[in-house]
Amino acid sequence: MTELEELVLTPGERARGVRVESVLFGMDWTGEEHPGQLAGFVAGRVRGFGVEPVGVDTDVVYRAAEGDPTLGRGDFPVRQLDHLSGVLAGLGCTLMVWDTGTDTYELLVALTGEREPTGLMYEGAPVRAWGSGAEETLVSLDCPDCAQLLVWQLPAAETLADERCDCGAGLFDAAGRPLPGVTLHD
C-alpha cells in the first residue's frame, strides 16, 4: 500500500480494496457542472474520515464572485479550491491535486493532520497539496522564426537559459527570460 492510499482512503475503503481513482473528483478548469458539487464531494470525504465538515461549503465564494467584475473564466474554480484548502487545513485534512497534465483538476482529500504530504505519485504523475508549487513546469511556445511548436517539461528550479530552436533562433536570455518576440503559451 502506498502512502497516498493511506492518506486518501478510509480504513474501510482500504480493506475493501477501493482504488484511489474511486475517491477522486474531476472538475474542468472552468468549474463544476452544478453549484455545490465540489463542496459536496469534499464534505463527503471529510465525513468518511470521521471528521465533521464544519465550514466545508463554497457559498462565501459564490457570494463574493457575484460582485466581482474582474473575475475571468477559470478564476472561480481556483477561488473555490483556495477556500476549501484553507477550511480543510483547519480540519486536519489537505486538498490534493493529481497533476495529470490535463486542464482538469483531479482532486483528492487526504487526512494528513499536521504533516505536509510531499513526494507523492499516482500512476506516474505527481500528487501535491493544492497551492503548493508544482514539482515540474511546462513551457511551450511557437518559435518566432520557423513557427515550430516547442515544449519543455522542466523541474521547477530549472530554466531555459540561452535556449535556442533547432532553426537557430534564440529563445531565452542567459537568465532564462524569453527574448523579445518570444511569446509563451498560457
Question: In brief, what are we looking at here?
Answer:
This protein is an alpha+beta fold and 186 residues long. The chain contains 5 helices and 7 strands. It starts with a helix and ends in a 31-residue tail after the last strand.
Architecture overview:
With 186 residues, the chain is α+β, with helices and mostly antiparallel strands. 25% of the residues lie in helices and 22% in strands. It is built from five helices and seven strands. It has helices spanning 3-8, 11-15, 37-48, 59-66, 75-89; strands at 25-28, 93-98, 104-111, 120-122, 125-129, 136-142, 149-155. It has a five-stranded antiparallel sheet. 20% of the residues are buried.
Give the beta-strand count.
Answer: 7
Helix and strand content put the structural class at alpha+beta
What strand order characterises the main sheet? 1-3-2-5-4
Spatial gap, N to C terminus:
37 Å
- The arrangement of helices and strands along the chain is HHEHHHEEEEEE
Give the integer mean of the pLDDT values: 90
What secondary-structure arrangement, pairings included, does this model have?
Elements: H1 3-8, H2 11-15, E1 25-28, H3 37-48, H4 59-66, H5 75-89, E2 93-98, E3 104-111, E4 120-122, E5 125-129, E6 136-142, E7 149-155
Antiparallel strand pairs: 1-3, 2-3, 2-5, 4-5, 6-7
